[in-house]
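Please review this pair:
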Amino acid sequence: MYCLRDPQLYRDETLVVPEPTFFVISLLDGAHSTLDIQVEYMRRYGELLFQDQLKEIIQLLDDRLFLENDRFDKHRRKVEEEFLQSPVRKCILAGKAYEEEPEELISQLTSFFLAPEGPGELAEPIEEGQGPDRSLAGAVLPHIDYARGGPCYAWGFKEIAELSRARTFVVLGTLHGEGKGPYILTKKAYLTPLGVLHPDLDFITSLERECDYDPFSEEIAHRAEHSLELPLVFLSYMYRNRPPVRVVPILCASFQHFLEQGSSPLQDPLVSSFAKALKRALGDRGEEACLLASVDLAHMGPRFGGARPLGEGDRILIARQDRELIGFLERLDGEGFYREIQGERNRRNICGVSALYTLLSTVQARSGKLLHYGQWPDPQGTVTFATVAFYR
């Protein structure tokens, strides 16, 4: 069986079909006529696919809004208009990627601190004039789902709770879709099961003012992007019983074209002007701001285009390569990090090159430290992730 779903969640449904039906669906690409599909089906399965059967498959897809046609376009425009007119960005993964009921969500996220791989119980937050000499300037966090990476999130948020004096959290999310501009902003509040995270409008306006393009023109990308939702839901958990904080959600588009061209992203005026504005805004806020990057590391195996399933030896090698890459983060060496990715043409599919590079180019820190490294060791699709803290 094959599961079909829309990654942009215009239709919040998974469609499960048998392999022959999936084969037919794969041919609905605008290049095959109904006769072509029948011929290909006969070649594959040795039996005739009747016109009525083909019509039933097409009707099924149309009813479930899985066809790219006028009906889907009308639905898509309606969903996008509702999102753009709303003052809040609703969490669309509640009840799917994490618990929807507040008490159950609190219990779920609390359990990650006490898990065998977790950091342990939270200490009391630092107070003005007390605590350690250093404070947290930023952190790299995962965006893998909680079920697979929950304890890794906990390492980062424990550090945030105990060492951060920030009242504004700037979160660099990884855009998993396409983007024309390098960074996409929103002024919407994030509505989570544990309350509302309001935007820092002054901070966002300072970024918008120095942009050489409209950073809101693709705001719709925020609607279904999990790389911001997952860390922000965790942030709402951390501050549910504390003075409220504000957020600046930023989606970072792919830097793949820079990697292929062999050029530095900062050579692009759109990237460099935004990075300068972000660095200046962070500097103006000082300890009142904390910069987070929501990224995952390697994506290896057949599910991500690899030739074969991965074994234990492969995962050991991936871990060694990941830790070498993390070394650039700890040293705050953005150009070294980028050259490393560029040298291997990002063959390990690091999910978050743009967010990591932007953080390293702008974070107001003196040192970095790896807090936790993890792997989800699926032979068909191994994903790795880490939490790295940056200190003033």
About this structure: The first helix runs from residue 19 to 26.
